[in-house]
Amino acid sequence: MLQIGLIREEKQPHDNRVAFTPLQCQWITRNYPQVNITVQPSDWRCFKNDEYLKAGVTLSEDLSHCQILLGIKEVPPEKLLAGKTYLFFSHTRKKQPQNQHLLQTILQKNITLIDYECLVHEDGQRILGFGFFAGVVGAHNGILTYGKKTRTFSLTPVHECHDFKELINHYFGTKLPPLKIAITGSGRVAAGTLEVMGLLGIKYIPPEEYLINNYAYPVYTQLKAGELYLRRTDKTYSREDFHLHPDKYDCRFLPFVTATDILMNGIYWDERIAPLFTWTDLAKDNFRIKVIADITDDTNGSVPSNLGDSTIEDPVYGVDRHTHLKTAPYLSDTVDMMCVSNLPNELPRDASQYFGDQLMKYVFDELLKEHSDTLHNATIAQQGHLTERFSYLQDYADL
Ligand SMILES: NC(=O)c1ccc[n+]([C@@H]2O[C@H](COP(=O)([O-])OP(=O)(O)OC[C@H]3O[C@@H](n4cnc5c(N)ncnc54)[C@H](O)[C@@H]3O)[C@@H](O)[C@H]2O)c1
């Protein structure tokens, strides 16, 4: 019998998500008689202990009988059970200093660590992520902020809704003024923002038309990497080349700053990639953007006016376009920034279900195999030893 445990999230502040919902646990145990799931009780998980009990799932503080333990965020080192196989987001593969002790403890305690972030399909695309609901919540927050700033309409904050279904109910009867939204990116986050565009009936306009026309109703356009970046030397774009040499590419977003009211930023970004615009562009009179939902959310990254994370409770701050300083939100001549770093936590039930679905579809069967390349390639530590693929972490893992 394979015993799987769902651990309680112990990292502070407590995360409210979980790897499998009660119904997913029920489905698994019905369809896989050789698997049993035990859930560690939690007072802050988005699914209540009772919901698991009602689904026929066993609750137990003690998970020592489990071989595999599933979490979401980093597990505090003192909570790690020796000799177990853990799956969670460890944030150790880039030698993140705050998690050095975590990896060292994993090795000391003979633990096997499979990192969700390292689970990829054959083509290198990540299997698991919370981007879709980050996109949904980010898009909603961006529009809500614009309504508050312009005092033209109001929307219910997402975290006040039980789940996505309830959020959608609030959209009925919402009439938005004419406004123009630019969405960047083409991954999971962008897909989530497009979902909200559809639900609110905001019309898609191709980028070239969006740039030159005005509309009597709300519209959006989407700029994928191929529309955003051009190689300096020959004005072409190749995905493979861009991923390898992003520093050779210029960003073509600038014309959109004069045609856009809300920017929803969902691109992949790192330091080698040109920002969407500069502080100098931001200070110009023709800079039209009033609200930026920076879902990508890198401080001083693809959006220079990202001055750091905001929180679910206090999601928006203003930025003065000339002094570059933070201001109160919703003022008339500032840019409002929505930079929440944990957006999926506003819709934790749906985000967890989506995560569990992906886990079920692409990872679960691998856990039942004697050997799985997918799992092996995402295994940072195997019974207390770094695997070959992650041996570059040795100096970080050494005590
Ligand atoms: N604020 C939040 O709560 C939150 C939540 C989830 C994700 N995010 C962030 O949003 C951004 C987008 O996330 P996502 O889930 O849409 O990602 P994704 O993995 O679904 O998509 C990323 C896109 O970037 C492309 N890409 C991958 N590697 C690249 C590279 N080296 N160079 C250029 N492009 C590359 C991919 O082809 C894909 O189209 C990320 O920066 C992520 O950290 C924020």
Sheet bearing the most strands, described?
Answer: 8 strands, mixed
Tally of structural domains: 2
Helix content: 25-40%
Lateral strand order in the biggest sheet: 3-2-1-4-5-6-17-18
Radius of gyration, in Å, reads 23 Å
What name does CATH use for the topology of the largest domain? Answer: Rossmann fold
CATH H-level name of the largest domain... which superfamily? NAD(P)-binding Rossmann-like Domain
Please report the first level of CATH classification, the CATH class of the largest domain. Answer: Alpha Beta
Show the helix and strand layout.
Blueprint (H helix, E strand, L loop, with lengths): L1 E5 L15 H10 L3 E5 L9 H6 L3 E2 L8 E3 L14 E4 L11 H9 L3 E4 L15 H20 L13 H8 L8 E5 L3 H12 L3 E2 L2 H6 L6 E5 L1 H4 E3 L7 H6 L4 E3 L10 E4 L13 H5 L7 E4 L21 E5 L5 E2 L6 E5 L9 H15 L1 H5 L4 H5 L1 E4 L2 E2 L7 H4 L2
Parallel strand pairs: 1-2, 1-4, 2-3, 4-5, 5-6, 7-9, 7-12, 8-9, 12-13, 13-16
Antiparallel strand pairs: 6-17, 10-11, 14-15, 14-16, 17-18
The structure holds nicotinamide-adenine-dinucleotide (NAD).
